[in-house]
Structure formats: structure tokens, C-alpha cells
Amino acid sequence: MRTLFSLVAPISLVLAACGSVPGDTATATETQGDTSTDSTATETATATDTSTSTAADPTEVPTTGAPTTDATTSTSATATDTGDTTTTDTGDPGVPTCGDPVHFASGKEPTQVVHVAPDGVDDPVTCGIAASPCQTIGAAVALATPGTAIRLHPGTYAADEFIEELAGTEDAPIWIGGIPGEERPVISGGTEALHLSRVRHLVIHDLEVTGASGNGINVDDGGLFEDPEATRFVVFERVFIHDIGDGGNQDCLKLSGLNDFWIFGSEFTGCSAGGSAIDHVGCHRGLILDNNFSDNGGNAIQTKGGSEDIEIRGNTMTDCGQRAINMGGSTGFEFFRPPLLENAPNAEARNIRVIANVIVGGEAALAFVGCVDCLAANNTIIRPQHWLLRVLQETVSNPAFEFEPVGNSRFINNVVVFDRNQISNHINIGPDTAAETFTFASNLWFAADQADQSSPAGDLPVAETDPIVGVDPALVDLDGDFHLTPGSPAVHSGMPLAELTGDRDHQCWADPPSRGAFELVE
């Protein structure tokens, strides 16, 4: 079975509203199970802005990026560490063993439970126990202290809940979500389901969100752009966000100024046509793992506005709009976190790692947009409709601020299957880029309709090392099952990379690894 690690560094955070809680003391049958205001600023939408269940065990705090005042520790300190240090030999090759992460709440249980039900009553003295639940999330939050689980019983709840300054601790997180094993509660309608501002050590889990005219769930730093501690340590597990927005720049999950976060085992579909399923503005040290994205307009995931050290791993994205994954983007200067530097180069994004994802359809699978030192490795890309990938620079230097051009990035070990008659250029490279600093290596390129037209060489900015071109990757089923078969040329022919932990199924990589999102289990 999967091994869990937990953090040990103490963090002293308390909830602003303290006091006794009338909720129930948690019992063995009420444990957390596997979960083991208005925004003061949002980025401007510009013409160039592309914003147009069973979960895996979660992860410890990633340690890359700038040091933090909490001095959190991890079991590894490599340059690309995201907390995925678990590699357990079970003796059974069918049991996933690699890349299993944990976070601050893994293995922890609530010390008290506050119950919420649609037919409850928000009595500040008596609500919260199982026999007398509160009616709204807001009333339950007012009763929460570190270690509290706010349990939403099945049913439909009112939207537009604004939650500010809610803080658990590393040893005693706060949970908000449904009851494990029961039907997910639904937050429906309104402008946004939940708005979380300046929160810490919080787990949002087992919720369904639908029908918001704005963002589905909004998390921000309350405008404290220079404070990396403002909103930190937030987990999303097994949330289902769908049918959001009015077709404009609205997102299913909007994250602004969030540091140290995890998004696991969730589903995002029908996010607004001009927005993203998950949109990051100035977010740092995150892991997005084992999620499903489908039928989204602008992007599945976008990381911009100074975002850094985010790993997007083991997800499946189907028909996710203009750019399924947008590494970087275009952000109004006033919305960068941290604020832009006047005497040093800036970037829309740095160290974004896209690993072992399955990306099907959409106009372009991947876009490097003002992204520096970024990586796309071991992804399986199936039939993009316009470009295989894009290299663009949408935010350029001006007299006030210098921006590094997109560059020093890598595209390695990917399997790319496409129909040549459906795409224009293999690679779209725009002006003002440093595309010549990219590395392309060990990718497999196959045009299913015209194998002799598979080569992207004429469109690549540099020569590729060790490509496989025009050879059928011999996947189980090009229409749905993208695992490798034993005769695939992708098997054990990739380049070893320090960043690789587990494949799309959490299987361990061979040495050398296979190309694409799946290792062959023999």
C-alpha cells in the first residue's frame, strides 16, 4: 500500500475567532478518512489573455523556490522536489508505488466536528451538533477552531460564502467538505460558491460546485501581494466543479497569491469559454495531480502573473480549448505576485513542470508563454486540432520593467500522435522569444494519417536529440486507452530525468524510462 509521510515543522497559526465550539467531538467513525469579501484585486482581461472519486494520497509541502519563514522540512531537497519521495517495493508490480504524495493533513483526524445541513438552523449557541446542524457554511466557519471538520451533509447549499482569515495549524488543520462515503453536497448558483481570502492550513474536499456566474471557487491573498504568508497551505481533494461562468473570463478554480497548495482527484468540466479550469496568478509551490479536465474553453490549467514551482502531473485533459496547459500567459503588471522588480528581469512563470499527463484534442496541447526554465516531459498528446505546441511571448519588456523571453525550457520524452491534415505548423513560434534556447529530446512524433509527414524538424527552433519519427507508438487503443503495448518503440527508450517520480498510474519508471505518460508494467 502507499506510504504516507507527514511534515514535522511546527507552525503557530490560530483562528481569529476562537472560543468554545458547540460541535461534536470527533469519534472514530467521524474521522476525515482519505483527506489523510470580495477580492481586492483580480487581473485584467486583455486581448492577449488566454483566459479566454477516489483520490491519490496527497503531498508534503514542496520545498523548491524561495525559503519561507515557516522553515518547513521535507524528506528530500532536490532541485525539483515536490514531496514525492515515496518509492515502496510491494513485490506486486500491479500496485502503484511511485509518486505518491502527502501533505500537512495526511493521516490527521479532526478533534471536533461541526455539522451543516440544508434544513439546519444557524443558532450560534446550539447549532453544529449532529442533532442540531447549522444551515450555512458561514455559520459553521464562525464556530471552527484548529482541528475542526465542517461536515456538509448531502443536499444543496447557498453560494456566495466569503471566508476570511480562517486558519488551522500544521498539527490541527481545518476541513470543509462532505462526509466521506456519502453523496457530495452541492453549492449551486450565485456569483461564486466560495471565496477564501487569507486562509491557512485548510482542506476543501468532497464538494460539488455548479452554476456560478463568476468563478466557481476563488482563493486569494486579500490584496497582500508582498506577503507570501497571506494565503498558504490549502488542499483541494475530490471536488467537482462544472458549468461555471457566462462565457467570459471566469474560472472554475481561481487562485491568486496562493502558496503551498495541492489539487488532487478532482474534476473540472464546462468551465467558462473565456476562462480556465484552474487559473493561477502569482501562485507558488503547488502540485496538481490525478485530476480530470474536459470540455473547457480557454485552458485546463494556466500559470501566470509570477507563478513559480508548480508541478502538473498525472492529469487527463480532453478538449480543453485554446491551450490545454498554458505555462505563463499575459497579466496586468499590477497583479503580479510578488510585485514586479524594477532592477531585475521578471517572468510570467518559472519552473512549471508538466509531467505524465494525457492531453486529448483542443487547439494546442501545450503553450510555453513567457515561461522560463519550464519542462514538459513524458506526456501523451493525442490529436491536437491546430498546433502540437506553441512558444510565445505575450508580455514584453518596456521602459519600466524587463521581462525575460520564454526560453531555457525542455520538451522531452513525449509521445505526440496527430493527424497532419488537422494541424497547420507542428510548432507555433511567435516573436520576441528565445526559442533557440529550448531543448527537444527523445520525443516520439507520429502522424496517424500520413506517417511520412510526421517530422516536426522544419518547425523546431533547434535540432532534436534522439527522436522517433513516423513510427506508430503501438498504444493499446488510439481512441481511448493510451497505455503502451510491449512492442511499442516508446518502451524503455526515453531519457532519464531527475524530475520523474511516477507515471500516470503512479507506477515506477524504468531505467531508462519509456516515452509518454505510461510506463510499461511487465
TrEMBL record:
Pfam families reported for this sequence: Beta_helix (PF13229)
Keyword Signal listed: yes
SUPFAM superfamilies cross-referenced by the UniProt entry: Pectin lyase-like
Region called Disordered, residue ranges: 21-100
Residues of the Right handed beta helix domain: 194-334
Biased composition regions of type Low complexity, renumbered to the chain: 34-97
Record protein name field: Right-handed parallel beta-helix repeat-containing protein
Phylogenetic placement of the source organism: Bacteria, Pseudomonadati, Myxococcota, Polyangia, Nannocystales
